[in-house]
């Protein structure tokens, strides 16, 4: 901590002295969309008279450039918008807000995306990919539900968790090793309908960015990736209403100014309606069944004055499933309050208060077996982040993060006449904190470095109890009880971050990065994707934090005036304190779960190839990933290394969108991956009249290869310049050639010969067509 504070003070002193000595002044402001007033993230602001001098806007569209006194021409550039230049006479610090207008052509030759044309080459970011919502909406969708997580699964280095699921794996990491943030609030389970859809309504989303490596110092807590999702702020110019009616759900979004150009709101809702059709059934056993999910996104922003802005946003979503005998529901709730403050033209701050709650409940309605089972994880957080624009060659970020976690793994309450016993697993809490400091430093016109340090800490606290075990670590011999907020166990560590970019020329660059990450929360699950009934547990007396170090390098090249962008990246990641389960582990409602867990090391490495066409009538990308992921855990697989279930040697994706005419857009996705690893029975034996299976090595076999083709066609009613109402129809075909991809494998006795065991593959989808009507006015 002392080192962080000392470096900060030094940099502040240097910036002050430089500013005084050279009589520099600052031009700053916001870059916004002219039609909606939304801040444009990552917009380029460059100085024509000083080649190589420029800056990009931050997460709120803010920029600052410190220059010697004089007259300059500033160029504002954002892909999909008309580039404009403005002359500014700088004799004192000046505020210059700018609005950019979308560049719309009759054939939509330019799509609106949240990035610069040459971001692939010029930006510091590597192992980082942005998805534009407009592009996601043109992709074929399962049952008409546009899903940004399924779109992310089509990017290089990302694997899906299984047929139809919304879980994802990044560069050899598990689903719990992905940090998912929605307006800076963590989302612990991003799935609807047991994983078939994600919780993110594309109509409410503004910006999506996935970090696979080179994770900025301000973020931590997960080993593999950061999925940073930002909600729309709401149109502060005009009332806008949009929505759609689909095969399984309908949605509606309303956004409008409260005070024009000063304050606005957005409310976006979505709900499925399968339960409505249950009510129409003549079967009494089906009539009262329930199966639906809903989402509600809300956001309000208010400009207090030139130096202060306030944002309040929330997400509320839930799944409900019930029959006459059984009921279950689960969902997320997040709330974020953010205050942007300008201490000066060059010092930008963001203070964020965060709440996140993931909970689930299930139970039986039968009188003799009636019970209710509840579980949750709740977060209360504070983030205080600063961006200091030292000068055009140095951009400093620093801040403090604090999060209070509350865990309730399971509580079972029986009914009045039930034979079920009451049970409450050991609840606990934890305090997680971090200090960070980083600097993006342009050494020369071609060489830029981004270096930083994150100091994280974690304290597991009561109320709770810790078992003391015998030498075999299976039988408790004593128990230590801790009161509320009493320290049980503490951990911490330094997490260095480093990235470098060297521009070979205007069209190509090479980049490299290194980052260390620590993860203090762990998901206890025996499924291949994050299910609603999985349990999150903290690092504790017996469960150490996970640690990962990753290095990556890549070559980045753009072609034909930035029409095409390509990259080749290689990476290597080594991981410690990786958790896996003993053979035949019992993790269901286990109060002494630590006795079923084993710890070891892991490694993941690979190469990713990516070619994208980002302009023209035909857009899209092709990607290929060659990778390997292994783990070595003493006590598993005879202490030999073994592949993880999501280890897939080869995977490739083709994503295309073609603007056939002003009214018709055609889209297609094709995806392929080698089969995931599984453990299979290879024999059996009898003992005392009972038959027991003999299994292969851990994950010693492979599922069949996975591949699927999706198609879509969108017809948009021709625009009338005198009418603001627009509408469209989208026809999607999921799994167009009816590939029977394995969802699961189970084993049973052969019906003709009971001495033989046979494997049976189950699959979920054949050809799945859907039709969606969308509107906007």
From TrEMBL:
Location of the TonB-dependent receptor-like beta-barrel domain: 285-735
Lineage, uppermost ranks: Bacteria, Pseudomonadati, Bacteroidota, Cytophagia, Cytophagales
Organism of origin: Pontibacter fetidus
Membrane topology: Multi-pass membrane protein
Compartment(s): Cell outer membrane
Protein name: TonB-dependent receptor
Domain TonB-dependent receptor plug: start-end pairs: 144-221
Leader sequence residues: 1-21
Domain of life: Bacteria
Keyword line: Cell outer membrane, Membrane, Receptor, Signal, TonB box, Transmembrane, Transmembrane beta strand, Transport
Pfam families, alphabetized: CarbopepD_reg_2, Plug, TonB_dep_Rec_b-barrel
GO CC annotations on file: cell outer membrane
GO molecular function: siderophore uptake transmembrane transporter activity
PANTHER family hit by this protein: HEMOGLOBIN AND HEMOGLOBIN-HAPTOGLOBIN-BINDING PROTEIN 1-RELATED (PTHR30069:SF29), TONB-DEPENDENT OUTER MEMBRANE RECEPTOR (PTHR30069)
Family according to the record: Belongs to the TonB-dependent receptor family.
GO BP of this protein: siderophore transmembrane transport
């Amino acid at each position: 901590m002392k080192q962080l504070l000392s470096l900060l003070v030094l940099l502040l002193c240097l910036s002050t002295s430089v500013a005084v000595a050279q009589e520099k002044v600052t031009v700053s402001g916001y870059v916004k969309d002219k039609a909606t007033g939304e801040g444009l993230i990552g917009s380029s602001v460059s100085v024509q008279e000083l080649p190589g001098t420029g800056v990009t806007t931050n997460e709120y569209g803010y920029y600052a450039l410190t220059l010697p006194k004089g007259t300059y021409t500033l160029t504002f550039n954002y892909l999909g918008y008309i580039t404009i230049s403005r002359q500014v006479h700088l004799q004192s610090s000046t505020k210059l807000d700018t609005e950019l207008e979308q560049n719309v052509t009759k054939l939509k030759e330019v799509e609106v995306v949240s990035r610069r044309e040459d971001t692939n080459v010029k930006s510091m970011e590597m192992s980082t990919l942005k998805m534009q919502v407009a592009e996601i909406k043109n992709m074929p969708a399962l049952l008409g539900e546009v899903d940004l997580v399924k779109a992310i699964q089509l990017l290089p280095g990302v694997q899906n968790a299984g047929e139809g699921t919304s879980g994802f794996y990044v560069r050899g990491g598990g689903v719990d090793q992905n940090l998912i943030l929605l307006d800076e609030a963590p989302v612990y389970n991003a799935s609807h309908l047991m994983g078939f859809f994600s919780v993110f309504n594309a109509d409410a989303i503004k910006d999506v960015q996935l970090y696979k490596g080179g994770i900025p110092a301000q973020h931590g807590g997960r080993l593999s990736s950061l999925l940073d999702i930002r909600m729309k702020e709401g149109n502060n110019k005009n009332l806008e209403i949009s929505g759609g009616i689909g095969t399984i759900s309908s949605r509606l979004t309303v956004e409008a100014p409260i005070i024009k150009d000063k304050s606005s709101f957005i409310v976006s809702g979505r709900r499925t309606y399968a339960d409505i059709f249950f009510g129409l059934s003549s079967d009494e056993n089906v009539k009262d069944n329930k199966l639906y999910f809903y989402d509600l996104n809300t956001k309000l922003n208010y400009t207090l004055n030139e130096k202060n802005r306030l944002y309040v946003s929330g997400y509320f979503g839930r799944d409900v499933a019930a029959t006459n005998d059984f009921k279950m529901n689960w969902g997320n709730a997040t709330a974020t309050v953010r205050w942007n403050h300008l201490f000066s033209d060059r010092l930008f701050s963001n203070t964020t208060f965060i709440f996140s709650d993931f909970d689930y409940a299930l139970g039986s309605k039968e009188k003799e077996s009636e019970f209710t089972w509840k579980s949750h994880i709740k977060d209360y957080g504070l983030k205080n982040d600063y961006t200091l624009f030292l000068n055009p060659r140095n951009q400093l970020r620093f801040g403090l993060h604090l999060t209070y976690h509350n865990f309730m793994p399971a509580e079972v309450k029986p009914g009045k006449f039930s034979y079920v016993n009451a049970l409450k697993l050991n609840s606990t809490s934890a305090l997680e904190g971090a200090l960070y400091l980083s600097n993006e430093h342009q050494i020369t016109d071609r060489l830029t470095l981004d270096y930083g340090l994150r100091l994280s800490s974690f304290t597991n606290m009561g109320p709770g109890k810790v078992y003391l075990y015998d030498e075999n670590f299976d039988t408790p011999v004593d128990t230590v009880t801790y009161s509320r907020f009493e320290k049980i166990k503490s951990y911490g560590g330094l997490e260095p971050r480093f990235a470098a970019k060297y521009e070979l020329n205007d069209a190509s660059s090479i980049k490299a990065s290194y980052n260390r990450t620590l993860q203090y929360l762990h998901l206890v699950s025996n499924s291949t994707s994050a299910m609603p009934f999985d349990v999150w547990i903290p690092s504790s007396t017996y469960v150490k934090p996970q640690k990962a170090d990753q290095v990556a390098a890549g070559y980045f090249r753009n072609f034909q005036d930035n029409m095409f962008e390509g990259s080749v990246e290689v990476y290597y990641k080594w991981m410690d304190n990786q958790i896996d389960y003993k053979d035949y582990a019992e993790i269901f409602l286990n109060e002494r779960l630590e006795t079923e867990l084993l710890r070891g090391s892991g490694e993941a490495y690979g190469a990713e190839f990516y070619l994208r066409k980002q302009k023209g009538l035909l857009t899209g990308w092709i990607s290929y990933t060659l990778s390997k992921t292994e783990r070595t855990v003493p006590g598993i697989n005879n202490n030999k290394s073994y592949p993880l279930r999501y280890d897939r040697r080869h995977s490739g994706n083709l994503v295309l969108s073609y603007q056939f005419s002003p009214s018709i857009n055609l889209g297609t996705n094709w995806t392929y991956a080698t089969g995931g690893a599984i453990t299979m029975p290879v024999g059996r034996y009898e003992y005392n009249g009972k038959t027991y299976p003999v299994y292969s090595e851990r994950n010693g076999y492979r599922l069949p290869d996975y591949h699927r083709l999706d198609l879509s066609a969108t017809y948009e009613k021709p625009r009338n310049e005198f009418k603001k109402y627009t509408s469209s129809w989208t026809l999607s075909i999921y799994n167009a050639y009816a590939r029977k991809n394995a969802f699961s494998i189970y084993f049973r006795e052969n019906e003709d010969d009971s001495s033989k065991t046979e494997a049976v593959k189950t699959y979920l989808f054949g050809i799945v067509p859907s039709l969606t009507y969308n509107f906007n006015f």
